[in-house]
Amino acid sequence: MKYTRYDLKRDNDNKAFIAVIFLILVLAFLFGTVIFKLFIKSPISSNIKTDSVSNRSNQKTDTKSSVNLNNSKITKFVAVQGGIYQSKENADEERNLLTQYGTPFTVTEDNKTRVFLGIYTEEQAERIMKSLTEQKVENSKMTFTLNNNDLCDVEIAEIINANIQILNKLAEKNVKAIQTEDLKKWCVALKKVDKDSKNILILKDIQDHISKMPKELTKENVAENYIYLYNILKKIASK
């Protein structure tokens, strides 16, 4: 009778080798996770934040005194549009419809009136348009792309973003007013930019606009400020 010989030592060596490889993979995964958390940063968001408000009449902005360069070379803002009308009556009807979802504003160009719900970051706009579509409210978008070529451009984008967050907050039903003191201080504290920057005049225009804001912004101020930002974006955005 023949007997089969089993090499137990070799079998044990194979198991040990597999265990070592598995351990190395686990350690590599853990090490990679730590490195990711330490060194990989998410894109910069607005330096102006607004907290949740519940049955309060006033809201102050929480600001930082400096602007960080955005990791991206571009910044996008989106105006969510309800429609374009030649008839003022139709435009007013559309605006009244959109008041259920925010604080809309209108812009007249080439004898046509555009009705917008608001201006948002690209991510915010996607959520809002999805919600409108689900509620069978027709909508479209106008995208403004800003190039971040230097510190001047970055500060313009950050200030516009700060204004947008405040106006969007005012569109909420339980927010009656937002104080502008912190926003004004934040703008004054921004770093000085190169006076030869391409868009230096636009930056000064926006800073001057903010300095002249009332102490409190209310819902009555939303439309006029949206229109101002819309015109600024039309001037500076890439075609």
Automatic annotation (TrEMBL):
Coiled-coil positions: none
GO molecular function ontology, one term from the record: peptidoglycan binding
Pfam family, one: SPOR
Key words of the record: Membrane, Transmembrane, Transmembrane helix
Gene3D superfamilies from the UniProt entry: Sporulation related repeat
The UniProt record lists the keyword Membrane: yes
Residue stretches spanning the membrane: 16-40
Domain SPOR: 77-135
InterPro entries assigned to the protein according to its UniProt record, in alphabetical order: SPOR-like_dom, SPOR-like_sf
Protein name: SPOR domain-containing protein
